[in-house]
Write a structure and sequence with these properties.
Elements (H helix, E strand, L loop, with lengths): L3 H8 L9 E3 L6 H8 L5 E5 L9 E7 L5 H12 L2 E5 L5 H9 L1 H18 L4 H15 L1
Length: 140
């Protein structure tokens, strides 16, 4: 996100009103994208999370008003292949970052703290991690 303006300006000459723009940059609004590109292209703002890599992830998504249902549904289907997709108004996309985009890190830190405690208590770390992971999975 810190280099997004540079990236957008670099591709600006290739973007048209017919091309659909998909952004996963945290905190970057659709209006910022289209204003920086200088074209009101159809856009989808997406906040995926890393568990998508395993097929268990979740994606928060919003759409611009000018994207066709057909184009939006294709993008929706792409992300739904790797997990759950939930639609939100764009006004909620910044807040959803901590609920969805960054939240796996909270679980990782929690699991790490549990593993460290188990090791301090004399348990094998790998065995503890198996128990922790299965407990988290089952709780989900």
């Amino acid at each position: 996100p810190q280099n997004y303006e540079e990236v957008l300006l670099g591709i600006k000459s290739s973007v048209t009103a017919e091309k659909v723009f998909v952004t996963i940059a945290a905190g970057i609004s659709i209006s910022y994208v289209t204003e920086t590109l200088g074209v009101n292209c159809p856009a989808v703002r997406v906040m995926p999370n890393t568990p998508l890599l395993l097929g268990y992830g979740a994606t928060a998504m919003c759409r611009s008003e000018n994207i066709s249902d057909e184009d939006f549904n294709e993008i929706y289907k792409m992300f739904s292949l790797s997990g759950e997709v939930c639609l939100f108004p764009e006004s909620k996309m910044n807040e959803v970052i901590s609920i969805n985009g960054s939240s796996p890190a909270y679980f990782y830190l929690f699991a790490l703290a549990m593993k460290q405690y188990a090791e301090e208590a004399g348990f094998d770390g790998e065995t503890a991690l198996k128990l922790i992971a299965k407990t988290m999975e089952g709780s989900a």
